[in-house]
Specification:
Distance between the termini: 21 Å
Strand order of the largest sheet: 1-2-9-6-7
Largest sheet: 5 strands, antiparallel
Number of strands: 11
Number of helices: 0
Mean pLDDT: 91
Low-confidence stretches: none
Number of domains: 1
Helix content: under 10%
Radius of gyration: 14 Å
Strand content: over 45%
Shape: globular
Amino acid sequence: MPLSALRDDALRVRGDRTEVRVSLPWIRSLPLASLLEPVVHIDGRRHEPAIVRGDRRVAVAALSDEDGWWYLQDRVVLQIPDAVAPGIHEVSVSFRLEIPYLAGGPDAPLRLPFAFTRELHADAVVASVSLDVGSAA
């Protein structure tokens, strides 16, 4: 399990959009639909992201209809419509993870809150074996 869901190369600019690649902060792979309510803050500005799956953008509300898994070594791509400038930015990501095999009460699975903040350099290059969830291998 990574120490932070935001690795050194988590912040990318793709054309007119910004992507934040988030590692899974859990001990086992989970269904992609386990990601709930992701929010991104860049330099203090709040953004409601879409999820990128290969060449598709998926609204957060539609994530429960998506098949697929979030593997430990891979990252979910959260995309926002504004591109950041080159350089260093403060990036915060918050979300909840639904753990489908653990009870969080009598009628619901466990839902854990997570929040991570780091200063990241846009488009930093780091050697990595991770893939983006939903991308071709």
